Amino acid sequence: MTHYRISEAAALIGVSDDTVRRWVADGHLESSLDSAGRQVVSGRSLAARAVAIAPAGHGESGVKRSARNRFTGLVTAVEISGLVAQLELQCGPHRVVSLMTSEAARELRLEVGSRATAVVKATTVIVETEER
Fold first, then answer.
1. Do 80 and 114 contact (CB within 8 A), yes or no?
2. Cβ pair 35, 41 in contact under 8 A
3. Could you tell me which residues come within 8 angstroms of residue 118 by beta carbon, excluding any fewer than 6 positions away?
4. How far apart are CA 39 and CA 34, in angstroms?
5. To 10 degrees, the CA torsion angle through 73, 98, 110, 65?
6. Which of the residues 45, 83, 87, 92 has the least number of beta carbons within 10 Å of its own beta carbon?
7. Which helix (H) or strand (E) holds 31?
8. DSSP state of 17
C-alpha cells in the first residue's frame, strides 16, 4: 500500500500540513509510522478524502457542468495580439495556459492579479508516475 508523509499528502491535495494533521486526529485519514518513525498517511484514505472534499461537478453558482477539471487561480499574464489572447493562471503549484479570442479576454475583463477559473474538457489526458 502507498503511504505519504504529512507534507507530501498536503501538497498532493492542496491543503496545509496542519489540515492533514487535523484530519488524522479527527479520524478522517488512516495513519501509521514509517520505518524511520515518521507519521505517514495511507494513499487509499487520502484519495477517499480528496474525493469527499472535491466539488460535485458544479460551481459556486449551482450550475452543473460536464467538465470536472476546474482550476481556480491567479491570473499572472495576459497577452492580447490581434484576434488572439494568451492567458496564464497560477493554480496552486500548477501553471495553466489558455488561448482564446481577444474579444473573450476583454469581455471577461482579464487582467494580471485577478482570479479566474480554467474549466478543462479534454479528449486526451497523459498520466505519468514516478518509479517507486
1. no
2. no
3. 70, 71, 72, 73, 89, 91, 96, 98
4. 6
5. -70
6. 83
7. strand 31-33
8. H
Cα–Cα distance measured from residue 26 to residue 22, given in angstroms and rounded to the nearest whole number: 6
pLDDT at res. 59: 52
**pLDDT tens-digit series, residues 89-122:** 988 778 899 999 999 999 999 999 888 999 888 8
Q: Which domains are assigned to the chain?
A: 3-53 (1.10.1660.10), 58-132 (2.40.50.100)
SS3 for 106? helix
Give the closest residue to 93 by CA, choosing from 18, 15, 14: 14
Residue bearing the bigger pLDDT, 43 or 127: 43
* 3 state SS of 53: helix
Residue 39, C-alpha cell as written in the block: 507519521
pLDDT of 57 over the 70 cut: no
Q: How confident is the model at residue 81 (pLDDT cuts 50, 70, 90)?
A: very high
